[in-house]
Design goal:
Blueprint lengths: L7 H4 L6 H15 L8 H17 L2 E8 L2 E13 L4 E6 L4 E5 L3 E7 L2
Antiparallel strand pairs: 1-2, 1-5, 2-3, 3-4
């Protein structure tokens, strides 16, 4: 009769405590974060022009938005601009309204130009 070894069961990560797994997930997420790009005034002016043209001609827009270390892309139609609070209201394909602060925008692309 040979040695009864449990094989893979013996080396699985079941012995980790839940707190350890949470810390490992957070550390991996922190590694994926990127710093916010620094935009110069010419890039900001170009973004403003693209946004205004997209509003005027009702074109679809792809906004790249920096949120807490990650860059998210939103596609939709510009619904409204709040110049005082510097907020862009974007209506996506599902009809859902997204509020995007202009200071968080790192890229603008007009679709169907």
């Amino acid at each position: 009769m040979g040695i009864r070894d449990r094989g893979k069961m013996k080396w699985q990560s079941a012995f980790f405590m839940p707190e350890q797994m949470k810390m490992i997930r957070e550390a991996r997420r922190e590694d994926l974060k990127v710093s916010k790009p620094i935009l110069d005034e010419y890039q900001i002016e170009e973004f403003e022009e693209k946004i205004l043209l997209a509003m005027e001609f009702a074109n679809q827009v792809k906004l790249k938005v920096w949120v807490d270390g990650f860059v998210n892309e939103y596609i939709g139609f510009l619904h409204r601009l709040d110049e005082f609070n510097k907020v862009i209201y974007l209506e996506d394909e599902d009809g859902e309204m997204k509020k995007v602060r202009f200071s968080d925008v790192v890229g603008v692309q007009v679709i169907g130009e």
